Predict the structure.
Amino acid sequence: MLSVDEALRQVLLRVTPRAPAQFPLAEALGLVLAEAIHSDVDSPPHDKSLVDGYAVVAADLVAGPAEFDILEEITAGNLPTHTVVRGKTTRIMTGAPVPAGADAIVMIEQSRLADEHQPLGRVHLAPLRTASGQNIMLRASSMARGDLVLSEGCVLRAIELGLAAEIGRTHVSAIGRPTAAVLATGNELVPPSQTPAAGQIRNSNGSMLLAAAAQTGATPVDLGIARDVRGELRDRIARGLESDVLVIAGGVSAGVLDLVPSVLEELGVAQVFHKIRLKPGKPLWFGVQEKNSRLVFGLPGNPVSSLVCFELFVRPAIGRLCGRQDLALEEVLAELSAEYTHRGDRPTYHPARLTPSAGIPSVEPLRWQGSGDLRTLTTANSLACFPAGDRTIARGEMVRVLRLPR
Ligand code: AMP
Ligand code: MG
């Protein structure tokens, strides 16, 4: 059986990042930029006022307050027509170009008109605390034409899309979202809308895995539930193979109705590995359909096993398809808050609560009923990783912890 690290390596070896395409800005949120973007403008395009106020020659107001004749008023979008000279001022609004001759703006709150009824008459201004430059943003101080402003590989957030718009881009070259189909399998499953009859349970994996896929940046495709019947599995799985990634939950263990691996092989999906040294998650199946570069994950049906396998294997695979380096779970070292006894020959990824601290964070393994106990997982924010073997780990020992996505 493969270790977790070796299994992940085997998965990533088979993932080819998607080719870039052009996306309108409105569809590019969360995508990875596939080009370097340079500015086509100076920003700001002129020395601009950062406040509503009065443009002055700073030297006029260094010694103390003074009165000025108002030359004109400029609002954003208009150009000044007068040069400001000593003893004169121009009323200026935020964003408007600073008139020639002026080297500081006095905020409107620091002014008093000599006559309220004459807004362009004389104005009394408070002294400036600093020398020239006050409340002025210099031309090209944010970026100059030709500057590299967005690097290839960056994740496009709202901020980057705003900047792209500022420099005239309507489209960007980026890596598109892969599709990820999710199929739940099992004769015992009913949809969440139904009340389970005797022997039945609701399909929780479907909703959970669709959400997890969306959270990694894939477009989720819901394939519903397939019963443990060859024909039904074959039809749904064939549909699932239209997506870049197919995630199947259940039917990969050693039970008599665990038909998923053989149906996958029938459909031309070659097994890369089946079963790994991991608890929960031992039955994990992974294969590829070479023809269309499809990645297929058969996750164990117990919901906690399903989630752990998704986060450890499917998440980084989708990350790689999307060109993202930052999608793997964050790993930290933490101090164990209570003694923990580990048993078994597989490493355990135990639902836990990580508490940050100024120094070393601490981690508390939660009381957990095993891989069917999704409820306890809702109170976890991490997985504490305990190595294989029978051993009691003392309170205060350092433990590897993987933070679950928020
Ligand atoms: P399997 O991996 O198919 O043997 O399923 C293992 C356990 O997980 C069984 O107890 C199933 O009832 C449960 N299970 C399988 N699929 C789901 C699902 N979609 N939602 C909730 N529980 C499931
Ligand atoms: Mg099953």
Notes: The chain has four domains: 4-17+177-321, 32-43+144-175, 48-137, 331-403. Residues 303-321 form the longest helix (19 residues).
